[in-house]
Design brief:
Shape: globular
CATH class: Mainly Beta
CATH superfamily: TolB, C-terminal domain
Number of helices: 0
Largest sheet: 8 strands, antiparallel
Number of strands: 28
Radius of gyration: 19 Å
Distance between the termini: 34 Å
Length: about 325
């Protein structure tokens, strides 16, 4: 049986209390298209795991930026941090819509995350490093070079609960003549320090978004050039058993995961949402091409979306993993 839903949302102004006066439901929507019976035991489209069941409207939070990336929710502070790469700035959103500068210059920061101690990590294009912001605001190096060669331009970060840091390192932030490494890769920073090259890809590869499954047993890596997402089993922190999770992600970029294991991948089409078995649930359509996304909010059900000049949000029926 083939099931298909199409929802479109007209442009309207929000109403209600003063905090919502500027809340805009954007000209967007979603398309859900899941085909066939349950696959490998995964429940069918009417199951509780359906991320499109009672999905909210895609809403514009703010716009007027240059190129937004790297959203990450800071639960302890109840705020979202996100990067404007060319503006060399990290911004802070206090929901619903209060935005201020968090750090400038940011080293042309891209991906952001928190380490096991809750300290901010940033993948900095301009400084070609992964950095940590210490208590008090001092910014220190986490990773800058591998076997004597400078990193390319760290792009996105995922942190395991045991403190291990994973990050992607494509060459987006440097000129070709400035590349010192002979590969574009995926790196691991063990909890006790050091730097391990877990995946050494060809110079044509573009490892980009990175995310962990809810049980932290699988690491997902988006390859923008290939339009695919690879999955790795983690054994002792190392990447093993590489497989293609999906090759239906044109221009695959940043990713997020919800608590039942659905994977949200920003693509040229919007946000493609996949079940844990790799089956496409559907696509969240955004007015601008999204570059990254992250769950946040007090109940972890708001999916924040960085899309070029705009920051958007949509309330999901399933809690996410911030």
């Amino acid at each position: 049986m083939r099931l298909r839903w199409v929802l479109a949302v007209a442009l309207v102004w929000g109403c209600g209390d003063d905090d919502d006066d500027d809340d805009v439901v954007v000209d967007a929507g979603y398309v859900q298209d899941r085909t066939g019976p349950p696959v490998d035991g995964f429940p069918g489209p009417d199951a509780q795991t359906n991320p499109f069941d009672d999905i909210g409207d895609v809403r514009l939070v703010d716009e007027g930026y240059e190129f937004l990336e790297g959203p990450t929710w800071r639960a302890a502070d109840g705020v979202l941090l996100f990067s404007d790469i060319p503006a060399d700035t990290i911004y802070q959103l206090t929901p619903p819509a209060a935005i201020e500068v968090f750090r400038m210059p940011s080293g042309n920061a891209n991906g952001l995350d928190s380490d096991a101690d809750g300290l901010l990590l940033a993948a900095e294009h301009g400084n070609r490093r992964v950095s940590r912001t210490e208590v008090g605001g001092t910014v220190v190096d986490v990773a800058t070079s591998y076997l004597g060669d400078r990193l390319n331009s760290p792009n996105d970060i995922a942190v395991h609960s045991d403190g291990t840091i994973y990050f992607t390192d494509p060459p987006y932030g440097i000129d070709p003549g400035d590349q010192e490494l002979s590969f574009n890769g995926v790196f691991r920073v063990p909890s006790d320090g050091g730097l391990v090259a877990e995946w050494e890809g060809a110079l044509s590869a573009r490892p980009n978004g990175i995310a962990l499954s809810p049980d932290e047993g699988t690491l997902y890596v988006a390859d923008t050039a290939a339009g695919s997402v690879r999955a790795y089993a983690l054994v002792g922190g190392a990447l093993t058993n590489e497989r293609v999770f999906t090759d239906a992600t044109p221009n695959a970029d940043g990713m997020a995961v919800d608590t039942v294991g659905n994977l949200y991948v920003t693509t040229a089409e919007g946000i493609n949402v996949f079940a844990p078995d790799g089956t496409l649930w559907g696509t969240i359509v955004v007015p601008r091409v999204p570059a990254n996304c992250a769950f946040g909010g007090a109940d972890a059900r708001t999916l924040y979306i960085t899309a070029r000049e705009g920051l958007y949000s949509v309330v999901m029926p399933i809690r996410g993993i911030p």
